[in-house]
Amino acid sequence: MKKAIFIGAIGCGKTTLIQRMDKLKIKYNKTQTLEFHSNIIDTPGEYVEHRAMYSNLMTSAIDADVVVLMQSATDPRIVLPTGFSTMFTKPTVGIVTKIDAATPHQVKLVKDRLIDAGANKVFEISAVTGKNVDAVTDYLNN
């Protein structure tokens, strides 16, 4: 499995996706520290929401093989600025989360934002229903 770092805003579904991928009971714990699961580095949403913490993301990504940018389809903000991925020297993919709670327009908007931030490939998932979670798992396993 590729070692991945998950980066996204507070509440975008990073931890929920990890729990779904690891077939764990889904529970919500608010943390403000890095957490390590299997081969995934789960970053606090504060790291991306406060630009002063970008250096923490760059340092944390050193051991990762792939950067995974995540944003909820229900979050209309520009969380990840244009070219965000250029601070990393790793392949970058995007994940639009919470597609089960969004309109197709919202999903497309966030997908376009992830591409603008530098994602080369974008997955659209629902960690709650499990839709397309296997595609993310397969990508990280190959």
UniProtKB/TrEMBL annotation:
SUPFAM superfamilies: P-loop containing nucleoside triphosphate hydrolases (SSF52540). PANTHER family: PROTEIN YOEF. Belongs to the EutP/PduV family. It comes from Lentilactobacillus kisonensis DSM 19906 = JCM 15041. One of its GO terms (biological process) is biogenic amine metabolic process. This is Ethanolamine utilization protein, EutP. One of its GO terms (molecular function) is ATP binding. The keyword Zinc does not apply. It comes from the Bacteria. InterPro entries: EutP_PduV (IPR012381), P-loop_NTPase (IPR027417). Keywords: Nucleotide-binding.
